[in-house]
Design a protein that fits this description.
Elements: E1 2-5, E2 10-12, E3 21-26, H1 31-49, E4 56-61, H2 67-77, E5 83-85, H3 90-95, E6 102-106, E7 112-117, H4 122-136
Parallel strand pairs: 3-4, 4-5
Antiparallel strand pairs: 1-2, 1-5, 3-6, 6-7
Helix pairs in contact: 1-4
Length: 139
C-alpha cells in the first residue's frame, strides 16, 4: 500500500515491516475523531519515549480533508505523526473501514493483529499493543 502524506512525502506501509505499527483512520470533521485525538497524542508521546521498542503511529485521512486542513487540525490539537491521504479510497477498502475513527495494530511481519472500531483511549491502545506483542512473541 502506497500513498502521499499531508506534507507531500511518499508513504509505503510495506516499508514499515520490522516494526509494530498502529494505523488510525480519521477525518478532521469527525466529532469522535476530535475527541479521540488527545489520546493518540498521549500514546505517540509514550511510544516515542520507548525508542526502538515503541510502536509507530500513522493516520489515514478519509476524504474530503485537504492537506491544509489536516495540518491545521494537528497544529491546533498537537501530534506529530504522518498522515496519509486516502483520496482514492484504497487504504479504506484494503482495511475494510466502515466508519471513523478506526484503529489497527499491525505486527512486524505486516499482519493486522487487532482492529478497534470507534474511539480508543491511550491506556487501552498501549495495553492492546503490548498484548499483541505478548501473544505473538514478536518484539
Amino acid at each position: 500500500m502506497r500513498g502521499t502524506t499531508a506534507d507531500g512525502a511518499t508513504f509505503e506501509l510495506s516499508r514499515r515491516k520490522g516494526s509494530w505499527v498502529v494505523v488510525n483512520f480519521f477525518n478532521s470533521r469527525c466529532v469522535p475523531c476530535k475527541a479521540e485525538h488527545p489520546a493518540l497524542v498521549a500514546f505517540e508521546q509514550q511510544q516515542t519515549t520507548l525508542g526502538a521498542d515503541g510502536a509507530e503511529l500513522y493516520a489515514i485521512d478519509q476524504p474530503p480533508d485537504s492537506p491544509a486542513e489536516i495540518m491545521a487540525f494537528f497544529a491546533e490539537r498537537g501530534g506529530n505523526w504522518p498522515v496519509v491521504l486516502d483520496d482514492d479510497g484504497l487504504f479504506n477498502v484494503a482495511f475494510g473501514v466502515a466508519q471513523v475513527p478506526e484503529t489497527f495494530i499491525i505486527d512486524p511481519d505486516g499482519i493486522v493483529r487487532m482492529r478497534w472500531a470507534g474511539a480508543i483511549d491511550s491506556v487501552t491502545l498501549a495495553l492492546l499493543v503490548q498484548q499483541q506483542r505478548d501473544i505473538y512473541g514478536l518484539q
